[in-house]
Each structure stands twice: as C-alpha cells, then as structure tokens.
Specification:
By secondary structure, this protein is α/β, with parallel strands linked by helices. The chain is built from six helices and three strands, in the order E-H-E-H-E-H-H-H-H. A three-stranded parallel beta sheet has the order 1-2-3. Helix 2 links the parallel strand 2 and strand 3. Helix 4 runs antiparallel to helix 5.
Length: 125
C-alpha cells in the first residue's frame, strides 16, 4: 500500500491513537511505502507538527492547517466584522501574508496573537 495522504488529528491535547508513543507513530509511518509527496493535515497544535516533521517522504511533505481550526482562531480576534470577513476571504485564497497585513493597524491582543499564530504556521515547519 502506498500512502499519499495521511491525516493526523489532535483533540485538545495531542493524542494520537490513544496513548501510543509518538515515536511509534513516526517509526510506523516512516516504515510505510510513502508516496514521494506526502500531504498532512493538522489542527495547528505544535505537537501534531512536531510529529509530522519527522515523516520522511522521498521528495516533499506538505503541511496543511485544517479550515475549521483556522476559522476558530480567526473568530477569537473579534473586533471589526468587515476585517474578519476580509481575512476569511484572504485565507480561503491562501494569502496568509496579506491576511497578516490586514491586521497591521489592529492592536488588539487577540489580533496580535492570531498574526503570531499565522506566522508560526508559515515559519515553524
């Protein structure tokens, strides 16, 4: 079997396969016949991405933030409905840098936290 798409989900705290050691998951995945390009979807929790970054496909590992958690974090920002809707549209188009820029004049702690969250998605992995 050739895995070309693998989904790992974290629920609150990172728990994969109920108390299975993360190293066992990593070793098991790497022992599989992976497709050259492996796509991984996660909820944005660092624990998930720390595991995913250990997967070793032949060419490329793509990491995708699931839309539900992305929108959940966006709505925590609050403030201007117009800005939130603009950010939604930009994120839907994959324009993360433009989304961050749309909050440039917003000094709400929640907005700064959301921008830091987006930056983490871009640069941490």
């Amino acid at each position: 079997m050739n895995f070309s798409f693998l989904i790992l989900l974290g629920f609150g705290r990172v728990r994969i396969s109920y108390k299975i050691d993360n190293n066992l998951v990593i070793d098991w995945v790497n022992a599989q016949s992976l497709a050259p390009r492996l796509t991984c979807i996660g909820d944005g929790h660092d624990g998930i991405w720390n595991i995913v970054c250990e997967f070793q496909p032949e060419k490329e590992r793509r990491e995708i933030q699931d839309l539900f958690h992305l929108m959940e974090n966006l709505h925590k920002v609050g403030g201007s409905t117009k800005r939130i809707n603009k950010a939604k549209a930009l994120l839907w188009q994959g324009k993360v840098d433009e989304t961050i820029a749309s909050f440039a004049n917003c000094n709400l702690k929640q907005a700064l936290d959301f921008c830091a969250y987006l930056q983490g998605l871009i640069f941490a992995h």
